[in-house]
Amino acid sequence: MPPHRIAPTPARILTAAADHIERVGLYQGDHLWQPGQMGGTAPCTVLHAWERGVRSVRPRWSVRGEPWEIFQRALFDSLVVLSNHINGRPVSGVRWRKLKLTEDAYRRTLLWCWGDEPDRTTAEAAAMIRAAAALHPSDGDHSTPGCPSIKNMV
Predict the structure, then answer these.
(1) Could you tell me the superkingdom of the organism this chain comes from (predicted)?
(2) What pTM did the predictor assign?
(3) Which is more confident, 71 or 2?
(4) How far apart are CA 135 and CA 28, in angstroms?
């Protein structure tokens, strides 16, 4: 990784997501927001905040090889840690297979639905994302996806 870029880790992705949602606020509603109207300052969903965190550590497009492999692992791990934390325990593959969804689609849906619960607050969303980040420290092993320990789950 070039010295000017910070190595992507699940904790960095999630911390950036929490920072973003604290800055712009939590978006909730019965209708889908318009992506063209979203950006760095409009309120966002938990899913959108996670995606902003992912973009914050993504390697430059001109970079090839290992940095992208590290980034892909951190991206997957951050989604697993966050969705497991929201779920209160590791998400079972039976859930997404029953619904005929991919694992990625199911986990992203969990993020969307959690943040859209009535009376959910920005502070609550940011705290939940930060708590998930603490479950996967930045110096963690990237060879095993997901939460380091089920004991850490809320």
Answers:
(1) Bacteria
(2) 0.76
(3) 71
(4) 26
* Mutual angle of helices 122-135 and 46-57, in 10-degree steps: 50
How far apart CA 66 and CA 117 sit, in angstroms, is: 39
Q: What is the pLDDT of residue 44?
A: 82
Residue 82 is encoded by which pair of tokens?
Answer: 């966050």
First to last CA, the chain: 34
Q: Please state, as a whole number, how many other Cβ atoms lie within 10 Å of the Cβ of residue 50.
A: 30
Q: Domains of the chain: which residue ranges?
A: 10-152
Which runs of consecutive H residues, i.e. helices, occur in 33-121?
46-57, 66-87, 93-98, 103-115
| pLDDT value of residue 77 | 92
